Amino acid sequence: MAVEPAARLAARLRFRHLQLLLALQQGGSLRAAAQAMHLTQPALSKALGEIEAAFGVPLFERTARGIVPTERGRIALDGAALLLAQLGHLQHEVVAAAPAPVLRVGAPPFVAHGILPAVLARLAAGEPPLQVALLEERVPLLLQALAAGEVDALVTSYPAQMPQDLGPELAYEKLFDAEFHVIAPPGHPLAGQRRVGWAALAEARWVMPAPSSMMRRLLEERFRRAGAALPQPQVESTSPVTNIELVAQGLGLGVVPASTLKLALMQGRVSRLAVTPAIPPNPVALVWRAGPRNPRVDALRAALQHRR
To answer: What is the DSSP string of 269-300?
Structure first.
């Protein structure tokens, strides 16, 4: 029976080899990597030869100034970093005082606040119950964390085209469209109008999402299409919940997801503006690394589907 390439590679490589690859990348030379790994240069050079023989391709290019990874070497380095990160998570779960499967999930703040609480409660009540480590961050940083193996999956808005430089291939499944509304403090002059255009919004004070956030990009696109300049923000804040409170205090207009707005509207602390044209909905998806099935990600998908 022929030996599968993955099985052959697993038989020849050790985790120590993966550490060596990363040490070479970080040090930029055999000498620096040997010092970091507490090896002699000949021993490290021999180990690198064994690693490259296992892969069957050169992973580093030797130059007068040191060594640099080849194109295939960069792929190997991404995989080495991911495998070592996963090994660290495995060690943490194995030695935990109360062993329980740990789902590491990332989400932008508006999903974490408005969508995930009920989903995570369902996971905690499942069998076996899942322990959850939640990372709240902006979407670009979440994608980087997923590619690096720091989280198992994301529940996030996602760009129309996934970045191509994230290393491991990502898979995603659309869950729903998130709606966003422009809000104003009670008694704001625009609050009573039947139609509010983007030119009028450009003249107002604003509590803006962070510059690199998806909601900020949605706003910028709306103002650009209306031929209006983006207003200078009075305050910039990443959290939709915080932004609702800032708007309620009269610091300016804001844009927030519908999922975080219901209570504030019911209490009359903010007003929703009748903006025309409205901000288009943005898709929210479950995103994970392609490859072998992860039962924790399957459990998250089931809990999200139950929410629909």
So the answer is: SSEE--BSSPPPPEEEEEEEESSS--HHHHHH
